Give the backbone structure.
Amino acid sequence: MVTGSQHFQTNMCKRRDFCVTNEEEEVDPVPTAPFRKPPGSPATPPAAASTAGRRPLRREVILAAALALVDERGLPALTMRRLGQVLDRDPMSLYRHTANRDALLDGIAELVFDQLVIPNGEGGWQAQLRRTATDFRALCLAHPNVVPLLATRPPSTPLGLQPLAILRPLEQLLQVFLDAGFAAPAALHAYRAYFALLYGHVLNELQESVADPDETEHLLRLALHRLPTGQFPVIRQLATELSHYNGAVELELGLDMLMIGLQAQLNPKPKTQQKPPPKK
């Protein structure tokens, strides 16, 4: 048998905004006295203390934790769940600050590029590009697990919508080439050639660094000399050079070659008119 009160509640529950579950219902008709802490109790309850000790969840905090995670464990280890564990937060709360993993990867690239400071033009444009290259190499070696993200992954947003931290080095380096005397289209080509060298060098240096650290120079030369002479004569000839690698020196040599080419673009040699062949 359904009482009038039960019938009223049943009809009201048909309207979603009136239907309340038992877990949501809190009725306390008896006034309660204000809470007083016992003598000697901590100033903050333990649960509140653990919450108060955590940093406020902001995009900057999330990106810093993501970068630290990638530095330590590599890009494949970066998931929203694992990042939530690092931050001691529900992974779903991260989506309020970053839309998805792609946005998170873009943010990591932004965070790294924001550390790249283009130096002033003291010493001329070539010296400026050399100092930038040295700083870029140091930045990449400090975050080697991020380099594939910077060099190979296309951004999830068009160029015009990318963060200012990523656009700023592009703008500043284009201005370096313009100030050096390059026309605008040529400055863009020079910038692309310059960064192609930087990315290629860093990827190559990291590839060199992952070799077995226990492999001695003598063993490496011995292995190279065992290659078939007829198939790999040049590699065998360069066995000593291949067993040595100095990233800083290699970068300077690459920059030397690039600067020669860029300078030639600024000061092209006048074309000599060929004399017509003598008439017979």
Summary: The chain has 14 helices and no strands. The radius of gyration is 32 Å. The chain has a mean pLDDT of 80. Residues 125-266 form a domain with the Tetracycline Repressor; domain 2 fold (CATH 1.10.357.10).
